[in-house]
Design brief:
Number of helices of chain B: 12
Order of helices and strands of chain B: HHHHHHEEHHHHHH
Largest sheet of chain A: 8 strands, mixed
Number of domains of chain B: 1
CATH topology of chain B: MetI-like fold
Helix content of chain A: 25-40%
Largest sheet of chain B: 2 strands, antiparallel
Strand order of the largest sheet of chain B: 1-2
Strand content of chain B: under 5%
Number of strands of chain B: 2
Strand order of the largest sheet of chain A: 6-7-8-3-9-10-12-11
Number of strands of chain A: 12
CATH architecture of one domain in chain A: 3-Layer(aba) Sandwich
Shape of chain B: globular
Largest interface: A-B, 39 and 25 residues
Oligomer: heterodimer
Distance between the termini of chain B: 47 Å
């Protein structure tokens, strides 16, 4: 069933590369590149949610912004309903933008402080000339009630709201154009823990009611577990493991995923892999050769240092892809079963 | 019944929401010194506006006739001659009033000119970057290399007594126009640089990215998102810069490049310069006091305005 959907995906990203030039000196010559996204491929079927996880600086947000057309890519393709966004003309891109919306991370930064809530939510509709006058007001009121805000908030300004309420406004703005794909770029990581679940529930609820497709980015695996059908784990601009949410959590294969999962606090026992991740994520301007994870990997062998592993299907499980030569091997302090 | 109406009024007030502007105004209104200074500024502006009205409608008022001899020359201040008389027996008080008119006219026009050059150029440079940015930065860096007073003097000398030809529409440049054109054309650099920096800062903020993500064009982003978020900088800058414009006008008039047919504080200081050694102190005093009071009021008010509009910069 799921695989059938994937043959006709809503979003298909292939070998996406987004580099940022490093300029130095008086002449601003390009002396190198930050390889923020370095060959990322995935698909999302309509109505499904793909969770994208990884440490800070691994390129999650850059993936999101490249897909939304906010940052130019170096190479690769981003197909939305069969149209390549990276090659689309201005008019086509404008049309596509109606169907892709973003919910930003920081609700204190993503709302224009000089505009009223009503104006903020109405602007996408005005830009695309979809509603005006009475109809526009009605639509804004409808959106406000959809995200659990009152109609009386329409003439207020963002600074009069709490973080959670602001994020609801951001969600309402994202839904204004009836998008098909919503990119949630760490929508809850800037919020209080007590508010996080409210917003996640709201997003999950809206997805089911409006049949939305999510690309859900987070650095918190526990958050992703709740909303995602599939999970992709990113490390240094690459996807290192991709599987259904169930598989990732019950049977992680990549050592990085295992270590990440061990960071989720558990009540019952000390998790395997705890404390195994040493040091910092390497600089994407000068990524290590071979497997990007090898300098920090407890399982790294000689071969890992020279050849980068490709994302390949795991033999045993369907729809479980992993980029590791030693996938599935137990970590040093893991009791093998 | 009464409680219901009160409730409905307060709920309407609540729903209206408070913008950052009205928030800032509320903070400003609570500052007594700032409001007093604002009143002083209003008085100066009213004098200027009143004298314009007198000139336009030819209202026969004694006060408005500054060039008439009202008594013997060099009369000290007293009950009969408020600020005394000058070397031609004219009222120093009336000349000081007309000086306010000249100064405020010049400062207002100079502000308008430098805002309308500096703000669009700064916003364009900051938003588009690339070659446009480089050109604009080159232009203002070049301008700001020249010492300020020299540059104003050069502009004033070139523009003096010229006739401006705008699409066949000939505008003779009066002394006042020369002064404000010279000041306006040279003083946009500061605001341009400020706006450019602010726009660069704001343009990568999430709310601008959000606007781009749903397809808002450059014009909409600049006018609906960026300019409203940087415009308080323009206001703060000009409440403080206004003093500089008034002083520039005084300096130019003092040097004889300004208005010749109407009194100005600069010209008053220039003519009183030779009287001072003889003990005729009142013309000098009247002109400098007039400048001092408005400078102080504008500075205090500008500081308060900055504190209220940009709480991050608050100094106290």
């Amino acid at each position: 069933m799921m695989s059938d959907d994937l043959n006709n995906p809503l979003l298909k990203v292939e070998d996406l590369k987004t580099y940022f030039p490093i300029r130095r000196g008086v002449l601003r010559r390009t002396v190198g590149h930050i390889r923020a996204v370095d060959g990322v491929s995935f698909k999302i079927a309509p109505g499904r949610t793909l969770g994208l996880v990884g440490e800070s600086g691994c390129g999650k947000t850059t993936v999101a912004r490249t897909i939304a057309g906010l940052i130019p890519a170096i190479s690769g393709s981003v197909e939305f309903q069969g149209i390549d966004i990276l090659k689309a003309g201005k008019k086509q891109l404008r049309e596509i933008r109606r169907h892709i919306a973003i919910v930003f991370q920081d609700p204190y930064d993503s709302l224009n402080p000089r505009m009223t809530v009503g104006d903020i939510i109405a602007e996408p509709l005005i830009v695309h000339r979809l509603a005006r006058g009475r109809k526009l007001t009605d639509r804004v009121a409808e959106l406000l009630s959809k995200v659990g805000l009152s109609q009386s908030h329409i003439n207020r300004y963002p600074h009069e709201f709490s973080g959670g309420q602001r994020q609801r406004i951001g969600v309402a703005r994202a839904l204004a154009l009836d998008p098909k794909l919503v990119i949630c770029d760490e929508p809850v990581s800037a919020l209080d823990v007590s508010i996080q679940s409210q917003i996640i529930n709201l997003l999950a609820d809206l997805r089911d009611r409006l049949n939305l497709t999510y690309l859900f980015i987070a650095h918190d695996l526990a958050v992703v577990e709740f909303v995602s059908d599939f999970v992709a784990v990113m490390y240094l601009g690459r996807i290192v493991e991709y599987a259904t949410a169930e598989q990732i959590y019950s049977n992680p294969l990549h050592p990085y995923t295992k270590i990440l999962l061990s960071a989720i606090p558990k009540i019952t026992s000390r998790s395997v892999g705890r404390g195994l991740l040493q040091g910092e994520i390497p600089s994407p301007a000068n990524p290590p050769g071979g497997c990007p994870f090898h300098p920090r990997c407890p399982l790294a062998a000689e071969g890992c240092k020279s050849v980068p592993p490709k994302l390949r299907a795991d033999n045993i499980q369907n729809e479980h892809f992993v980029a590791c030569f030693r996938a599935g091997e137990p970590l040093p302090n893991e009791v093998s079963t | 019944m009464e409680t219901i109406s009160v409730n409905s009024v307060s709920s309407v007030a609540q729903n209206a929401g408070r913008s950052l502007w009205s928030d800032a105004l509320r903070r400003l209104r609570r500052r007594k010194t700032a409001m007093f200074c604002f009143a002083v500024i209003i008085v100066y502006f009213s004098i200027a506006a009143f004298l314009y009205a007198v000139d336009i409608f030819h209202i026969p008022l004694a006060v408005a006739d500054w060039s008439r001899q009202i008594g013997p020359e060099y009369q000290p201040p007293g009950a009969k001659y408020i600020f005394g008389t000058d070397f031609l027996g004219r009222s120093v008080f009336r000349k000081a009033l007309y000086g306010a008119k000249t100064s405020i006219t010049v400062a207002l026009w100079a502000s308008l000119i430098s805002i309308s050059i500096g703000v669009p150029l700064g916003a364009m440079a900051g938003y588009f970057r690339g070659i446009i940015d480089q050109l604009i930065v080159w232009l203002y860096t070049t301008l700001s290399c020249v010492p300020y007073i020299l540059l104003i003097l050069a502009f004033a000398l070139v523009l003096a007594d010229k006739t401006l030809d705008v699409f066949g529409w000939k505008i003779p440049l009066s002394g006042t126009a020369t002064v404000y054109l010279a000041i306006g054309l040279t003083s946009w650099v500061g605001i341009c640089r400020l706006i450019r920096g602010e726009v660069i800062k704001h343009k990568n903020r999430d709310y601008v990215l959000a606007a781009r993500s749903y397809g808002a064009g450059s014009g909409r982003i600049i006018f609906r998102h960026l300019l409203p978020n940087v415009f308080h900088i323009v206001i703060i800058n000009f409440s403080l810069r206004f003093v500089g414009f008034i002083q520039a006008e005084v300096i130019l008039s003092f040097l004889g490049l300004g208005e010749k047919n109407s009194p100005s504080w600069g010209a008053m200081i220039d003519s009183a310069r030779l009287d001072l050694p003889k003990g005729y102190w009142w013309e000098m005093t009247a002109a400098t006091a007039a400048i001092f009071v408005i400078s102080l009021a504008l500075n205090v008010f500008g500081d308060a305005l900055r504190d209220c509009l940009d709480p991050k910069l608050r100094t106290e």
